[in-house]
Write a structure and sequence with these properties.
Layout lengths: L3 H20 L27 E2 L5 E2 L25 H4 L10 H9 L2 H13 L24 H12 L21 H11 L9 H4 L4 E2 L5 E5 L4 E5 L2 E3 L12 E2 L9 E4 L4
Antiparallel strand pairs: 1-2, 3-8, 4-5, 4-8, 5-6, 6-7
Helix pairs in contact: 5-6
């Protein structure tokens, strides 16, 4: 039987989730897509990505200036295709928190949350040769956060160790290699925060200005990355072709537009 306090909390959370879902809006089509390769092979030759910034005229993306730091996959490398973002984002933390845990989470101050995130980040161990986390390249689905954030983490985990190929993930969310913006787009789509892949230039106009509480996207014309619940998700700085996009080293955010999803 659900206690009265538990019922009130669940009702409150349900209203919040409904409000977040109601804010979601369809995105316009992305720029020129990469050519898909039958049979799961890696495409050859980088496509040119261009985009039209919504309401701000036409802009053209430039080649990712940090591509060399992302361990671009050689032509002979193959990887299985990813699942659709919706399927990847369906994996969320098992079980529900107790009444006491929910109340404690709601009562935490932002300073305490930042401290907890910092402690969690420092426990991650990088792989030599870069800043990628070790193990299987994924991070645990966090508890005590909105379900949409759990889905974004699950989606990011799905392709965390996929190879990097410029233009990857733009012809379709389902691909066998992802570039910087393809990676961020896939994870956001897993949480229902994006309806089509976007280039790094388009992500400059995603969501709302400024950092978010749980998720912050940094973007400019050539590169993009994000922090999810305090953990860096980036293609540049990885430790190898199949190394994780989750990284332990904070980066210099200067020169990037800062965006977040309203309410998150």
């Amino acid at each position: 039987m659900v206690s009265a306090s538990r019922a009130r909390l669940l009702l409150s959370c349900g209203l919040i989730c409904s409000a977040i879902a109601g804010c979601a809006s369809a995105k316009s089509e992305s720029g020129t897509p990469a050519t898909a390769v039958a049979g799961g092979g890696i495409r050859s030759g980088p496509p040119v990505k261009s985009s039209a910034a919504k309401g701000q005229g036409t802009t053209t993306d430039v080649a990712d200036p940090l591509e060399a730091n992302s361990y671009p996959a050689p032509a002979g490398v193959h990887h299985i295709a990813a699942a659709t973002p919706a399927k990847a984002g369906a994996v969320v933390a098992a079980g529900a928190p107790s009444d006491a845990e929910v109340k404690a989470e709601l009562q935490q101050m932002q300073a305490v949350e930042r401290s907890a995130k910092h402690a969690r980040t420092t426990r991650l161990t990088p792989v030599p040769g870069g800043f990628s986390i070790g193990g299987d390249g994924t991070i645990p689905i966090p508890g005590g956060v909105p379900e949409v954030i759990q889905k974004v983490v699950a989606g990011a985990n799905e392709i965390a160790n996929f190879p990097y190929v410029y233009g990857g993930g733009h012809a379709s969310f389902v691909d066998n290699a992802y570039d910087c913006s393809g990676s961020v787009s896939y994870a956001l789509a897993a949480g229902g925060l994006l309806s089509a892949p976007e280039t790094s230039g388009e992500l400059e106009n995603w969501g709302a200005p400024g950092p978010g509480r749980y998720i912050t996207v940094y973007a400019n014309a050539g590169h993009t990355y994000m922090y999810v619940d305090g953990i860096l998700y980036d293609t540049a700085g990885r430790s190898g072709v199949y190394a994780s996009r989750w990284q332990v080293q904070p980066v210099n955010n200067s020169g990037y537009v800062v965006r977040h999803y309203p309410g998150l």
